[in-house]
Amino acid sequence: MRYDLCRMRCDYHVHTEFSNDCNVPMHEQCKAAIAAGIHQIAFTEHEENNPREQLPYSFDHPAYFEELTLCRARFSADLTLRAGIEISEPHRYAVETARVLAGYPWDFVLGSLHWLDAETNTNSREFFTRYGDWRGGFHAYFTEMLALARDGDFDILAHMDYPARYGRPYFGDAYDIRDYETDIRAVLAMLITRGKGIEINTASLRKRLPTTCPPQAVLQWYHEMGGTLLTLGSDAHLARDIGSDITVARHMAQAAGFTRITIYECRIPEQIEIGD
Ligand SMILES: [Zn+2]
Ligand SMILES: [Zn+2]
Fold first, then answer.
1. What's 61's domain CATH number?
2. For residue 3, what pLDDT band results from cuts at 50, 70 and 90?
3. Where are the alpha helices (H) located in 181-263, listed in sequence order?
4. Is residue 2 part of a domain?
5. Which of 15, 26, 86, 276 has the fewest CB atoms nearer than 10 Å to its CB?
6. Domain that holds residue 18
7. Which residues are placed with Cβ below 5 angstroms of ligand 1, an ion?
8. Distance 44 CA to ligand 1 centre (A)
9. What is the pTM of this model?
């Protein structure tokens, strides 16, 4: 490899055409990553077990590993590829999750809360209105997240305040994650106890939101509480988005007091220097 661990640039949340909402071939994402100066990526394809999701159960695992093997061989001089998966509600679909995790050699597992329950997607109008107002929706969301943190099999909790990406029409500028500090500290404590971590997801910056998901305050709390496992990810569904704002995320981590971020192989975390 042409880099040392201090200089390594990683993007640990990338989708390809193996995800139900992405059309970019894996080899195109690899080329885009190299062009963007990224040295290591984790492909984190959507694993959807909710029948209401678009194209549920569509992640073709054998084809993914076949393609990954080809891309590893083709790009190995410039890029390290980690076999990842982004599982929606792993706590609610525990049997399906156990089966897919046991069936393949995953390096990295994101746990996501996209659906509050079987019927309600947290990007939907119903989510923001059903609890009286959007504030009740967020409280219900973080309460459910504690169940995910407690019972789910995953490595890193993805995009902690995901509904913030979609709720602008309902809350305008009034949403402030610090209003949910008690809920979120409970989630963070559970993650730390179980040896799991969080990510800084930069996709919201591309949606013209003022901050990452989660915002700086959560990084501060996590660091104060002794959290160490932290990945950085663009959540790219387009080639041009790979690595986007990863530098911003790195600086946010440093501002919160972190000197290291986390990479994974065979689901075992390794801490690397954030670097310059
Ligand atoms: Zn997601
Ligand atoms: Zn994603």
1. 3.20.20.140
2. low
3. 181-194, 203-206, 216-224, 246-255
4. no
5. 276
6. 10-273
7. 112
8. 9
9. 0.96
